[in-house]
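Researcher: Re-running this chain for the archive, since the previous output was lost when a drive failed. Same request as before.
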Amino acid sequence: MVTLRTGPTGDSPGPVGATPSSSYIPTLDGWRAIAILLVLVAHGRFQFVGPGSGHPNEWLDNLLSYAVVGVPIFFGISGLLICSRLLDEARLTGAINLRGFYTRRFFRILPPYLLAIVAIVVMANLNSVDIPSGDVASSLFFYRNYWPTSAASGWYTIHFWSLAVEEHFYLILPGLLILCGKRSLAAILCLAASVALWRAIQGHTAILSPGVRFLTYRTDIRIDGLFFGAAAAFVLVSPTMIPRFRRFLTSPFVVACGLVIVIGTWKNLTSIDTIVAMLVPLILLGTVLRPTEFLGRVLEWGPLRWIGRISYSLYLWQQLFFAPIQVPLETRLMPHLLPEWTQWMPWNLALVFACATVSYYVLERPLTRLGRKLARPTTEGRPV
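Model: Regenerated structure tokens:
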């Protein structure tokens, strides 16, 4: 066993709403559901109001495209949750077990991910659709967000860019906590602020990337969303910070933050990515610290939490069922890997939920349990 030690983090009580044997925060499953539903709205608009659809509407198409804010919500959740569990492990054991952490991440992330990639390649071959080998390789080795493609079929792997960002975060955060010890929070905030500043510089100069679209995906300009989430995790494990943040993170404040994001996105503010990256963790904290208030109760509603549980599988498979009719920004038709009827509502929605449900219960959940058996976590986290 490879175990690297950190400085003690104090006698903190662990994540809010969690027992000493569990770090599960049910509110975050509700947020996962909100995030994936927003992504489905953003991609589902193509069949409703996008170019080539039965009712093209440029204004509505543009409006619904803003639902991609679901991805930054995922980033905030991951940063908050992963960091809080690592901090909890350091608090309870005085150490962060890297082997255990990466073993659990391997069994949690890779099996359904690899299955989705194999399915895409197989279906592409059956339908004579060319998936560039670079797209596949960059997806397999988590650099899809640094691999631009001009092929229309790139649609079926482009969503793996966000998973690449998350994997890079998993590689950085544990080592950062170990190296910085008690200064970890300051280091995380400095790193997040540096990324936000670098994004602003890139947005004005495009030093490394002349393509605006490509600027959306790179780790070096998107990982601040995860690090701001990680900074929020220090609140959840601190007995002194919890009451302070609970006092001002009221429901009206959370709603106000949400309105700032909506208005800023609508007005297309140049700093919107930074605004979202900073406000999403505060919104998450506001509901986690007040689970009995209205927003918390809604997020902990059973059906919403179930959608949150299968959200990873939904994200992996949704590109197959929510493909545009036409290639975005072009007039040619999108090559589909599935029969055309599978792209129509409500069939596409039913099929992606069916596919994700099978993926979750047959593959994702059993292998997550196996990962926990091979490397038992300090706290159990979400039931699977």
